[in-house]
Amino acid sequence: MIFSSAGHCNARGTKNEDSGAVGINDRWEADETVKLRTRVNEILRSKGYNVTEDEPTESLREYLGRIVTGPASVVVEFHFDADDNASANGCSAFVMDDANASSQAFGKELTTAIHETIGVRVRDGGDGDGIEFESDSHRGRLGLVHKAGATALVEICFISNPDDMTKYDANFEPLCQALANVIGKYEDLIK
Asked: Which of 75, 79, 162, 164 is 20 to 30 Å from 68 at the Cα level?
């Protein structure tokens, strides 16, 4: 089963409104992740995949408590990064510090798909694979990456970088297709 969620899914006007990162032209991470997750999930469902997603009225804690994953699950959450330095750019995927090989490969393929589709650079811990570990994140611990299965939290690009967002906007549909292809591939591999 596929579990696909939008970081900070409580977009404008919802009960628990949470902007997440705020970028150029007052673009909210919450709005962008919901838009991206919704389209990726539409593509997956059109291909016959069973997808569970987060609800706009629930907190991350409620979502993580609701979903039951296992070794044959694919778990992904979409995010956008931000930085005070408007030239900060790129994509990356966070996995648990002692992530299994499936999670690491899944994260790497997601960042490769982003890089190849929209042309942003791949960021990582220094070895060029697009993978970062949760202990290197701003929070130090990321609840989602502890779910069973092939699991990754992916940062699409920097919402604070005009060039990253121009590339994202210009290639939104091909990006959604590419992400759905990677997610579907892992669902087929591990079920």
From this structure: 79
